[in-house]
Amino acid sequence: MPHPAPAAPSASFDVVIVGAGPTGLTLANQLGLFGVRTLLVEAEDKLIDYPRGVGMDDESLRAFQQIGLVEQIRQHTAPHQIMRFVNGRGTLLAELAPQTDEFGWPRRNGFVQPLVDAELFAGTGRFETVEVRFGHRMERFTEIRDGVDVDLTGPDGEPLTVRAGYLIGADGGRSVTRKSLGLAFEGSTEPTRWLVVDLRNDPLGAPNAYMGCDPARPYVSIGLPHGIRRFEFMLFPHEDQAFADDDANLHALLAPLIPDPVAADVIRRRVYTHNSRVAGTFRKGRVMVAGDAAHVMPVWQGQGFNSGIRDAVNLGWKLACVVRGAASERLLDSYDSERRPHATAMVDLSDKAGKVISPTNRLVAGFRDVVFRGLNVVPAAKDYVAQMRFKPMPFYERGAVAHPVRPTRGAPSVGRLFIQPRVTTRERDDVLLDDVTGPWFTVLAWNNNPLTLLDDRAVETWRGLGAHFVEARALCQLHWADGDNPEVTVVGDLNGRLKAWFDQRPEAVVVLRPDRFVAGADLAQNASSLTRRLTEAFHLIPGGPDVSRPVLPVALPAHGVRATV
């Protein structure tokens, strides 16, 4: 049956997001924080409640901190979750137990995704500029000269057309947005399937995660918050959906792992196939894809969820700058050039991790065990694995960054996520750095007032963009007030981490993007020239309107939607 003819646009928004998963919800919160008129549409009539992600990293928690929801979300996490790989005899092969908190939060955290999604949804209710509509399916879209017309079908089948400046497809691995754009989605699909089961009243009760590298049947066992236990079992070719749905078969799978499988209290179960695919581009004109619509990967490193959050955090501030007239559309090109290479690296890492757990050939599994035994006797190799130093960290070689004109000594800083130590201000003791700098641009100088380093033109550039000026000092100098400027926030380096960071590099001035990546860094006397290079990198519009610095809402209202535990 042909679709009804769309009516004239009934409403207009700066941005329309398709898909109320974690990527779309995080982006909606970001855009709400930045004052962008946003419509989020979801085809389902409520949040998805089937078993999905269980691993959240420190970058995602920092993103939730930025949008003012980290404390609500942390209620549904298990911090410092250790992942242990064991073979069929229960022998420990490897352990992932990173101790770093360089970005302010634990690197590995178990979590319950339906509850986290519910908190993100509740967070959208803080913003008058954000509207969420469930039961609205996108049928098609048409890009016009200065926007996108989006045709929707509402809950009662009525056609509806809205106009957007930009359309973001966060509509999952089967994305209608990506398919409508005709984007390639190259990669592979594993022939094996996995049965994923969540149990209430955890029958084991132990924390942490176990990857059962058992050639007889690879499995996963993960302790989650609120008494939930996640099990995942590889299914063999002859085990179909009917096999997975049969309680007797589930009890047989659980029997080697829990005392009384018949008494297991099943919340939800679902069969998954693992895909490894990346879209050919993340942007085409005024339409972009994000999250699973842009990349899908196996679950082994828990990076599908986190990669989608990285997309949202990278894209949100850029959309805000363009929509608010501070930057040209060319800034949006950096979304693809920055995010696609790293997403591809995470897909590759997830594929490699799957090759560790999934062999069912006993000779291959035995060889794997020998390799890991060898690694474990070399302390440096064992620590490399335990601290997850193999994990590719985002590094933007090109995009909305200004790398040094000349090579510098020490670790590169531009294009990397800035650290988040604890600091002290004259008004607040022992707080995370981002809670001081805020969720927008920051010009931060070590041991210098940044306003005294910048010429008048550079100062006006950053003022017009709503940037926050920050001077970092040794803690003992915090209350020295000679020459202070009320426009500059002074922070004391509480534990010496800021000094150590600057000590390893020649730069003493850094410009932080809203996503907390270092956009540029240079010597103090070069602060003004750095500003001019960043003006080009951000594609700022000369004489564009001033942008006010975003401020988080004070209160989070109660919300009617809650996920089932």
Describe this structure in words.
The protein is α+β, with helices and mostly antiparallel strands and 565 residues long. The protein is 29% helix and 27% strand. The strands form four sheets. Strands 1, 2, 8, 9, 10, 11, 17 and 18 form an eight-stranded mixed β-sheet that branches. Strands 6-5-13-14-15-12-16-19 form an eight-stranded mixed β-sheet, with helices on both faces. Helix 1 runs parallel beside helix 4 (113-124) and helix 1 (22-33) runs parallel beside helix 8 (303-323). The longest helix is centred in the middle third of the chain and has 25 residues, at 333-357.
Q: Give the overall average pLDDT.
A: 91
| Fraction of residues in H or I helices | 25-40%
Beta-strand share of residues: 25-35%
How many beta-strand runs? 26
Quick structural overview:
The chain is built from 16 helices and 26 strands. By secondary structure, the protein is an alpha+beta fold.
List its traits.
disordered C terminus; eight-stranded mixed sheet; alpha+beta; single chain
SSE map:
Blueprint: E1 11-18, H1 22-33, E2 38-42, E3 55-57, H2 58-66, H3 70-74, E4 77-79, E5 83-87, E6 92-96, E7 108-111, H4 113-124, E8 130-134, E9 137-144, E10 147-153, E11 159-169, H5 176-181, E12 185-200, E13 209-213, E14 219-224, E15 228-235, H6 241-245, H7 247-254, E16 265-279, E17 283-284, E18 287-289, E19 295-296, H8 303-323, H9 333-357, H10 362-376, H11 379-386, E20 422-425, E21 431-432, H12 433-437, E22 442-446, H13 450-453, H14 456-464, E23 468-474, E24 488-493, H15 497-503, E25 509-512, E26 518-522, H16 527-537
Parallel strand pairs: 1-2, 1-11, 2-8, 5-13, 11-18, 22-23, 23-24
Antiparallel strand pairs: 3-7, 4-7, 5-6, 9-10, 10-11, 12-15, 12-16, 13-14, 14-15, 16-19, 17-18, 20-21, 20-24, 22-25, 25-26
Helix pairs in contact: 1-4, 1-8, 8-9, 14-16
